[in-house]
């Protein structure tokens, strides 16, 4: 009805929503708390646990958890607690970098496909669908085995980001498509705004919850992919990421040798991270789509 | 010339006899209250609504979008879902309060006694079922025989009655046009010969020509069936042509109930006056638009008369005292402090 | 089913296969070096398997791929080989043909993944539909949080946990493998029984972790569907709640869910590959793992290609199934 101050109002409204949200959206809040817990472990842990613990041979092998080695040690003499404290942020880092790249590419593709439509839409949506159908892990295996050599955390993130753009592309495209016909976009068009201008100034602010949800799921997918690759041995061999820890524990058959303190802690961390990310993205979905709010 | 003004000019010719007058009351709604409990507070969507429906009568319910029309329709069949709740009131169907029925009793009564043509007619049919099966489904759950020749004949007759070819029975909804879909919905609604048919904006998604055809079909069927109809809408032009009496809703309340002829000739409530005045000039399709001011928030309704922030005749007492829906003229109920009670009739 | 729809789906299938082949061809070449050649030379230098063998491999490899020809010709040769499922020979297990090795492993994977995925999809969808249904029994809602947590654990890590408790600690199931050590694969009843017994834990890890995923997406679809006008009208018709649930809400919500299944297949198979490794299951996942550890490139490329073809086929089947479930689809396209 009243078109003029709508955007300002909308932004302010959003701010208010975010504040109220923490109470109204228990899923979002719980997810943020879980991730905060993970971050705290990675931030405060280094104050108490020296980094030497992740070095091979820094401790006697195969020690059960004890007062000296709180989470025990692995077969090559690394301390599991140190691995968790110094490895978890590496895994998060890979996820965040790859997720950001994925979201960036997905935004460009999604906005262009959704806003301009036509041949561009066919191209980008088609590409996203085809690459979604293909099992990402195998493509990443092909990439990783081909470009073998010293993999760093950064290269791992880049490899994983190769397949992190499809979901953002799809969701953003369909949202843009549904928004394109709304009143205020039409109004902006009539008042002579250019395509990119409309995308940045009209569509983006309204898509914020979707973009945030897309980012979170892209991060989650990237972490899943990187852990999967690492479990195959295709990761930063010299870094104690969670996935590499899983790989080494499989490599040295830790389950059959009853070294539960080796494989259980990384799994627990991975589960906390995934549950946290999942709750955040589900919470953001609720923010974006009020219909999901009931029956939580 | 817009066709609205044409229609306005030829408001229903004076009926020779008004069959509903003096006819027995089939449905009496008393002080119906429905709220939706949203995170931002309770929305009093229907706030003490009363009206009566006589056998064979066509009763119209108009009001802006959000004034509570659909909520009334749904609550009469106990179809309000959380966060909504029927807070109080009665709906007497042949003297029996249907709001106090158990869930199973209510289910049996739906369609068999009161049929509701829900809002959003274009999507009211299950997209993956043939029309025939959607009729059969209803019969089956009401204990009617369905696996016999007779049932097939009934379906054919039913479709013919609403003006559809028999082949439609085997079609899916996406194979039908908008008007045909709405006819199919009407066929389902009358398939058990209900006493009351509630039609919630049955033609809002259709173009004007089809609208008229559908309304004529509905009207014809109503007469042949002898059913009473509650027609919900916001198209005053359509109301003028098809209903006998009209109730005007504003912010969850009925503010005026009058014979349709009187309401167009001499609207009493200031809101009704504005509606009628705004019709031919501003709104092309005769829909309710262009009343100055914003509709009130149902979250925190203004004290006193809900219309007072927008009312041109607002007086001091309007801001404090809620006007009751009372008989102010013969046959005319109005909720406004401008009028004295019609003592003669009261 | 109209021909146009059929052709369009077939085209998508061919497109997927073509992308798979092309990725396999160009990624190695993008790296600048030829990883297969390098690997062969490296092996020749070490001389582990006997120099004679390695030279034979190099010879067959060069003849096969026509490495002296221009790139576009190599590409066409390559596509032709892929079309015939000819992936060359294994580097480490010369002269075994890669397609033969894949053919041995593929049935194990196909059976495991198909059964486990269909079960996870069916149970999860039903469960999710019930969670979204206001009249569902209370215990359904109590089950939701643990299942959702399970869905956050990657298949193979759940597998690890299951092995530790059910196989290692309580000894209810074998620790791994596809059949008893020492027995030979055959079609005898006792072998099939044994194989089924060995597949329970791998399947369970896919199913348990999948149920939550499918339940969650079905719940979303059901909430959307329950708000549809046709469900409200079905209620107004006085239908029994069970009929509304099954024939109106669930029946419609399953349509987008089926599309979601087609899209998730790649993800599911990626997870299954890792499950096989955890369990030492004799499918393509394990074959791939051995190949990665020895950088046996023909196997890596062959497995990737075959798995993508299999997924493309599964997607095609789902696409052809969809018009049966949804009368609108063929109508729109014709
Ligand atoms: N499910 C719901 N949750 C919250 N508020 C609702 C819901 N349904 C309707 N309302 C509110 O109730 C009021 C009346 O709605 P409705 O009966 O649909 O009006 P109408 O049919 O006259 O357009 C509106 O203000 C609307 O916002
Ligand atoms: S009661 Fe007062 S404010 Fe309300 S409509 Fe009548 S005159 Fe206007
Ligand atoms: Mg309505």
TrEMBL record, chain B:
This is ABC transporter ATP-binding protein. One of its GO terms (molecular function) is ATP hydrolysis activity. Keywords: ATP-binding, Nucleotide-binding, Transport. Pfam families: ABC_tran (PF00005), oligo_HPY (PF08352). Residues 29-276 form the ABC transporter domain. The keyword RNA-binding does not apply. CDD domains: ABC_NikE_OppD_transporters (cd03257). PROSITE patterns: ABC_TRANSPORTER_1 (PS00211), ABC_TRANSPORTER_2 (PS50893). One of its GO terms (biological process) is peptide transport. The keyword Ligase does not apply.
TrEMBL record, chain C:
InterPro entries: MetI-like (IPR000515), MetI-like_sf (IPR035906). The chain crosses the membrane at residues 105-133, 153-173, 195-216, 260-279, 299-325. It comes from the Bacteria. It is a multi-pass membrane protein. One of its GO terms (biological process) is transmembrane transport. It is found in: Cell membrane. Belongs to the binding-protein-dependent transport system permease family. This is ABC transporter permease. The lineage of its organism: Bacteria, Pseudomonadati, Thermomicrobiota, Thermomicrobia, Thermomicrobiales.
